[in-house]
Amino acid sequence: MPELPEVETIARSLRPQLVGRRIVGAELRWPRTLAAPDARAFRRMIRGQTVRDVKRRAKFLQIELDQHSLLIHLRMSGDLLIRNGSAAREKHDRLILLLSDGRRLIFNDTRKFGRAWLTHDPASVLRQLGPEPLGEDFSAAWLYQSLRTRRRQLKPLLLDQSFLAGLGNIYTDEALHMARLHPLRSSRSVDRRQAGALHRAIRSVLRTAIRRNGASIDWVYRGGSYQEHFRVYDRVGKPCRVCGTAVRRIVVGQRGTHFCPNCQKLR
């Protein structure tokens, strides 16, 4: 599933190509792609609107139009790309927006899990999300206090989008390794110094991944190179880049979890 760095990379790529373009029509090839409204209302409402901005909130792409916001969650295998008007439709194209310059904005989704919302009120979809890891609201002090008031293991808590928005399996494993914290560690047991280390690790991992256009692994996302620099993720049995101990994999909350048993001791 694309996480914050991949979605941010897509938003940055699409912004200069879409801003100022008018949407002249829409083709819906898989009706369940739309979470709201229904297909007929969607085609009527979006036609004629101009793209004003393309940004990201957590793992959502947010395309700002004249009168509405188009929110897209890529889920497991979704991708958003622009093709020339003469390009043939592909098998997994689910939603196609026709642009005023003759090109098309394509929501391609092999597994059909991705969803789109066209809404006057983006907060109605996004209000349950926690703070942005790269935003001003996410401070070391906030993280320390928030960890101390919860009785959860670190890995599932950091994956909880209502706690912190945008982190997924890859970057949670990477940040916990950088902070030298075991994924099963109780959030209440993290002291102020460790919370500061985790705060710095989360931001460092995400910023580095964005610079490398995210990671290209286990889905259709294109162009990222962060997978070449993984610390522990997808490196089972390989030496830890810090101490040389073999990386291990366990299952935490039904998610494959990678860690170094020496650097990330469970206390």
Describe how the helices and strands are arranged.
Elements: H1 4-18, E1 23-28, E2 34-36, H2 39-46, E3 51-57, E4 60-65, E5 69-73, E6 78-83, E7 93-99, E8 104-109, E9 115-119, H3 123-126, H4 140-148, H5 154-159, H6 169-179, H7 192-211, E10 248-252, E11 255-259
Parallel strand pairs: 2-9
Antiparallel strand pairs: 1-7, 3-4, 4-5, 5-9, 6-8, 7-8, 10-11
Please give a handful of descriptors for the protein shown.
267 residues, alpha+beta, N-terminal domain of MutM-like DNA repair proteins, Helicase, Ruva Protein, domain 3, 2 domains, five-stranded mixed β-sheet, four-stranded antiparallel β-sheet, 7 helices, 11 strands, 27% helix, elongated
Report on the structure:
- The chain is of the alpha+beta class and 267 residues long.
- The chain has 2 domains: 4-126, MutM-like, N-terminal (N-terminal domain of MutM-like DNA repair proteins, Alpha-Beta Barrel); 140-259, Orthogonal Bundle (Helicase, Ruva Protein, domain 3).
- The chain has 7 helices and 11 strands.
- It has helices spanning 4-18, 39-46, 123-126, 140-148, 154-159, 169-179, 192-211, and strands at residues 23-28, 34-36, 51-57, 60-65, 69-73, 78-83, 93-99, 104-109, 115-119, 248-252, 255-259.
- The strands form 3 sheets. It has a 5-stranded mixed sheet with strand order 2-9-5-4-3. Strands 1-7-8-6 form a 4-stranded antiparallel sheet, with helices on one face.
- Helix 1 (4-18) packs across helix 7 and helix 4 (140-148) crosses helix 7.
- The protein is elongated, with a radius of gyration of 20 Å.
- The two termini are 31 Å apart.
